[in-house]
């Protein structure tokens, strides 16, 4: 299927007057350099207020290496499932592992991590009391997201054909009206209509680009893209870049910051490579 899409994309490029086979082959390989450690992060050393040592004479604050934090779900994904993906990913922003037990949970996890409006993603938070239709008295949400404005949203992930079978709509609706104080400010359901593979692919590309973010490249692209009004092809934005990889990385970084807005966010950016500059932001 991927090869068919590549052929279709190549035919569309020929129709628009662009032939990638005429581009000169690179004489050297250029790798993007990570702007910060990938597996963990350095944080300022926090001294114990009860420590008798005097650190006032230090010329600078020492930094401490903090490895990637382990996932802390209230329950782990099953050891075996039928037809579902399960595993663990790492939020590149917070350097914390997140578990998932289905393809849609994985897609949503990447999508939330790639949003600039979400600062923390928790997988499988503690169960909340609710009388469900199947007789159980507790429900565990798949994710809890902390927004930049401080609000907490809990999410249940299910395909649409299982909503009625599991009674999830009744459960989420009941919990949403009776959320425990401090647990969350709202509850919602995400299905395969929102957590699509294409949106996940875009989210993964954003997270990958943020690891290699270069402020000078982002500023250069932002200044040039601001001259455009309306929709523009990414190829036109990067026409003057000596190393296109740097420009493509900047595109994803600006999409994360919502400075560039994809015209078709429901499709992979490579399948609909058109964006517009957000002059309001």
What order do the helices and strands come in, and which of them pair?
Blueprint (H helix, E strand, L loop, with lengths): L1 H14 L25 E4 L18 E4 L20 E5 L4 E5 L2 H11 L4 E6 L4 E2 L8 E2 L3 E5 L4 E6 L2 H7 L1 H10 L8 E5 L6 H15 L3 H11 L5 E3 H4 L6 H13 L3 E3 L11 E4 L4
Parallel strand pairs: 9-10
Antiparallel strand pairs: 1-2, 3-4, 5-8, 6-7, 8-9, 11-13, 12-13
Structure description:
The protein has 281 residues and is α+β, with helices and mostly antiparallel strands. The protein has eight helices and 13 strands. The chain has helices spanning 2-15, 103-113, 160-166, 168-177, 197-211, 215-225, 234-237, 244-256; strands at 41-44, 63-66, 87-91, 96-100, 118-123, 128-129, 138-139, 143-147, 152-157, 186-190, 231-233, 260-262, 274-277. The strands form five sheets. The chain has a four-stranded mixed sheet, with helices on both faces. A three-stranded antiparallel sheet has the order 11-13-12. Strands 1-2 form a two-stranded antiparallel ribbon. Strand 8 and strand 9 form a beta hairpin. Helix 2 (103-113) crosses helix 5 and helix 5 (197-211) packs across helix 8. The protein is globular, with a radius of gyration of 23 Å. The relative contact order is 0.10.
